[in-house]
Amino acid sequence: MGAAPASRDVTSYGLGLAAPLALFFLAFFVAPLLQLLWLSLHNDTAGLHWGLGQYLHFLTDPFSLGVLGSTLLLGAEVTAVCLVLGFPIAWLYQRVAPKLQTIIILIVLLPLLTSVVVRTFAWIVILGRQGIINATLQSLGIIDTPLKLLYTQFGVVIALAQVQMPLMTLPLITALGRIDPNLDDASCSLGAGSWRTFFRVVLPLSLPGVIAGCTLTYAAAITAFITQSLVGGGQMLFMPMYLYQQASTLQNWPFAAAISIIFLLAVLAVVSVFTTLGRLSRGYGGA
Amino acid sequence: MAETQGGRSLVVDAVTHRYPSGALAVENINLDIKGGEIIALLGPSGCGKTTLLRIIAGFIAQTQGRIIIGDDIVDALPSNRRAVGIVFQNYALFPHLSISENVGYGLAARGIDKATRQREAQRLLELVQLPTMAERLPRQLSGGQQQRVALARALAIKPSILLLDEPFAALDKNLRLDMQIEVKRLQRVSGITTLIVTHDQEEALSMADRVAVLSHGKLEQFGSPSDVYDRPQTLFVNTFVGSTNRMPGVVVSADRTAARVRLDAGAEIIARPAGGALSEGGRVTVCIRPEHLQFVGDGTGFAGVVGMSLPLGATVVHEVTTADGSGVKVSQARIGETRALESGAAVRLAPLAPSLANAFPATL
Ligand SMILES: Nc1ncnc2c1ncn2[C@@H]1O[C@H](COP(=O)(O)OP(=O)(O)OP(=O)(O)O)[C@@H](O)[C@H]1O
Ligand SMILES: [Mg+2]
Asked: CATH fold of B2-235, please?
């Protein structure tokens, strides 16, 4: 181990204990990342000419920018759906009997207990032309021709929302659980209705959970290669698949590397916006 | 606070509450409270005080009975339409709002504009003597200060009923006394009907016009502090409020106003049948407060041996062991030079007056 022999000072903690993990990260995360960066700074696939050509290409190519935009938008849509559906579940969780709480937690966690691939195929079965939704609507006579649900933005958002839901619901449940239930009563006794109580007390105090949930859901949704490509199909292209095509199919490694770096920076930008909001809201709740 | 509407009357009519878990927290409570009265709900932990308060505030719906405020039966009204102010035991200030916003919260809910709200909040903060704290967050205040903010917040909506759940429990002794005086002063000025939950009997006796004593969800007695202290109706009230000596005995003869009881300690005394009629030959518990026992030198009363004497400032408390082996406490005022009692001295004791010895049917 490369642990520093360092000081015998009793007030300093043995950083050596963190060394295995640090080494692991160094070898399998930092090093590949640097390699990626190095790769992306070449103008040709052979890796002979240095330059920012790959980045210029991406940033001036409307198609590439479109893929980036629709990926970031997809993340926003999935996050919004998860927030809107997840908040009521978390809210309900805090207000039902313990037995029901167990059931809710089970339902929330259930998606995590099956593989993403299995869940995604389930959505294909549900959304397909002869899928459950179309079959039901047709047999009820509501529609004549099957609706196109699979291979649409709508289908991808719904499937991703279901897959990523626990990432939103769990932080929300934790955040709502930290709110003193007397605050609800206090607000009510002061004459506030339930909506005012929700917007003035519950929502602001649950903001740390909202932000944590949004960050996790967003990051997971835009990088969800399997669900995106299976439910989205060939017509819809998102960053992970774009990247995969450039790297595996076209063997254009420098461009794929540049896509990765740009995608990474875009994600970091969005996540840091979330965390900044989180830091601003930390005035609430704590202490 | 002169503009506050005078407090409205509050009637708790045969209220029973059973929690979904099956716990019977409150059982058939009847309270008839006049407008402007200050009432203490006194009882040991878990006797249902908070539950009753939450029913009055409208946070939980009682299983049976009615709550009547003024002339209105309010059972169907949600708590935001009852105009009942409540101060929670843990204050429950909104942690993300400034002190000023906390106090103005109820006014905002009534659609009052910001400038008026701030002015009113400032006025109330001056009333509770925290005029400089308006911009702070609750966690930047001490417990006692948060307490006062919670009070100001409840008063801001000009409630017709004010409920305080153990408002002074977290305060040190001096601050508690200050706050008790403060609350009583505010209450007198505003005339708000006030219900204070407490398990501190001194607080109940000193602050309230009337005291409701609860035990295991039942109302044991509802009367003036002197009623509760001097004429307790149940053994529980007698022992819970103030300190008392419990002496077992047998009824020799009894009518409605007086009973002759043969104490196991070895004397016959006259006692007041406090909990209803007593039957001859039945076993009773006689309660005599330490300050209501005196040393007698004429051979009457019951015999005992002095154990320890504790001089407690204005009074001296003697521990005396009686013939049946039980101990009683006798408290004597220190007037002039009190006869010094040595440990081991043989003495005789008797109650000061028959009305000061309360006899209750013995329960096993
Ligand atoms: N939410 C609840 N569900 C079930 N039982 C409860 C609930 N709240 C209180 N109880 C029970 O009801 C009884 C009365 O509780 P309550 O909180 O009214 O007591 P209290 O007089 O306020 O006690 P304390 O002085 O300790 O605050 C207790 O036995 C308690 O266990
Ligand atoms: Mg309580």
From this structure: Rossmann fold (3.40.50)
* B54/A196 Cβ within 8 A: no
Residue for token pair 């992306």: A40
d(CA A130, CA B248): 87
**Arithmetic mean of pLDDT, B269-286:** 87
- What confidence tens digit (pLDDT) does each residue in A116-163 have? 888 888 888 888 888 888 888 888 888 888 888 888 889 999 999 998
Residues with Cβ within 8 Å of A269's Cβ and at least 6 positions away in sequence, in order, are none
Task: Please report residues of A whose CB lies closer than 8 A to that of B82.
Answer: 189
**CATH 2.40.50.140 domain locations along chain B:** 243-361
Phi, psi of A72 (to 5 degrees): -65, -35
Place of tokens 């109650």: B351
d(CA B128, CA B100) in angstroms, rounded, equals 13
Across chain B, mean pLDDT equals: 89
pLDDT-based confidence at residue A285 (cuts at 50, 70, 90): very low
Residue A196 domain boundaries: 52-284
What is the CA B150 to chain-centroid distance, rounded? 21
Q: Is B253 helix (H, G, I), strand (E, B) or coil?
A: strand
Q: What is the pLDDT of residues A64-88, one digit of tens each?
A: 999 999 999 999 999 999 999 999 9
B260-274 pLDDT per residue, tens: 999 998 888 899 998
Task: Report DSSP letters for A55-105, one per residue.
Answer: HHHHHH-HHHHHHHHHHHHHHHHHHHHHHHHHHHHHHHHTTS-HHHHHHHH
Q: Tell whether B55 lies on the interface with A, counting CB pairs under 8 A.
A: no
* Residue A84 buriedness (CB in 10 A; 0-12 / 13-18 / 19+): exposed
User: Which tokens belong to B121?
Assistant: 């909040």
Residue B101 in tokens:
């916003």
Q: What is the DSSP letter of A32?
A: H
For residue A252, the tally of other CB atoms under 10 A from its CB is 17
Give B-chain residues touching A97 at CB under 8 angstroms: 20
Residue A73, in any domain of the structure: yes
CA distances from B338 to B103, B167, B178, B335, B341 (A): 55, 41, 35, 6, 9
Q: Give the Cβ contact number of residue A241 at 10 Å.
A: 17
For ligand 1, say whether the CB of B90 is within 6 Å of any of its atoms: no
| Residue A235: Cβ within 10 Å count | 8
The chain-wide mean pLDDT, for chain A, equals 88
Q: What total of structural domains would you count in chain A? A: 1
Domain B243-361 in CATH: superfamily? Nucleic acid-binding proteins (2.40.50.140)
pLDDT at B276 over 90: no
B299's tokens: 């051979």
**Inter-chain contact B86–A189, Cβ cutoff 8 Å?**
yes
B48 lines ligand 1 (CB under 6 A): yes
CA B286/CA A83 separation, integer angstroms: 67
Tokens read off for A227: 């669900």
The enclosing domain of A124 has a CATH number of 1.10.3720.10
DSSP category for residue B79: G
- Tokens representing B51? 């539950």
Look at residue A7 and tell me if it is in a domain: no
